Amino acid sequence: MSISDGTLAPAIGTARPSRLPWQARMAIGVVLAVAALVLFLLIRTGADDVMRWDFRFGPSFDRRLRTASAIVLAAFCQGVATVLFHTVTHNRILTPSIIGLDSLYVLIQTVGVAVVGARFVDNSDGVPQFLLQTAAMVLFAGVLYRWMFSGRFKSLFLLLLAGVVMGMAFRSISEFLQRLISPSDFDALQIKLFGRLGSVNTELLPIAAVICVVVGVIVWRRRRVLDVLLLGREPATSLGVNHQRELTLALVLIAVLVSVSTALVGPLTFFGFIIATLAYQVSGDWRHRATLPMSFLIGVFTLAAGQFVMTNIFYAAGTLTVIIEFCGGIAFLAILLLRKGTM
Q1: Do 27 and 294 touch, CB atoms closer than 8 A?
Q2: Could you tell me which residues come within 8 angstroms of residue 78 by beta carbon, excluding any fewer than 6 positions away?
Q3: pTM over 0.70
Q4: Which of 59, 64, 205, 283 has its CA 20 to 30 A from that of 157?
Q5: H or E segment to which residue 325 belongs
Q6: Helix, strand counts (H, E) of the chain
Q7: pLDDT for 54
Q8: To which H or E segment does residue 328 belong?
């Protein structure tokens, strides 16, 4: 039985066989994602509530281009990180936020506002702050991995349990501090605790893009090893894969992607879960060569189309991430309770 011929797909519970090849599905995904980005960039609703093409390159287009860049980066980070997390945990109802990185981000912002005041929020989008926040979250994940994997247990499930406990501790401290700060500081803090696509600092985009490219190259070069990891520890080891090393590397890459995404656009707890779940269903192939790009394309299409609709029809662009998180929570509960995690 060979991994490359797809005969192991039913054994690991992946996408159902289809007459439409995965390459064609990928092409459709590319067309839809690009079309959504083009519509968002080049169509505006005027004062007469009529949508028109707008090819003027000015401040308005620059803002939309900045938002589109944040959409691409957030979709890449969340989609790839969630697929990798599902691969190493062998559980498709978990999200990378279980490690506690989102809670750590909230704690960092809360402590900053509690100590400095509302001006901490105004100054937290600079390059040094972005790098420090990202480094803090990656460092936390690295310490957690080393702590759990260097002991005598070396259990991934203990790692996830430790992440849950640490996340609960971070949230409890954050909630306690939020009760102590002034109402005006609390209002300023809430801006940073929700996903934001339209208020990203332009200087952060090249840094985040370089990190994403580096991680993307590493992941793509190891896509066949990731396919083997889907089989489990014993089968992967018997096929010559250093399971411990590959697991640690994947977890480090997940921490980097989630940290970059969270520091750039804020927490997006269920967004990665949505696009990864959809990618498994529509990719047409169980291997990472299909699921990884498809999750990215679905993420771009979802954010770009949603931002276009909310901006030009409902005039409420800032509420898109809230709606996505709400829908993602419902989808999570539906899969967990109704389908019992059989995706």
Answers
A1: no
A2: 257, 258, 261, 268, 271, 272, 275, 299
A3: yes
A4: 283
A5: helix 320-333
A6: 14, 2
A7: 75
A8: helix 320-333
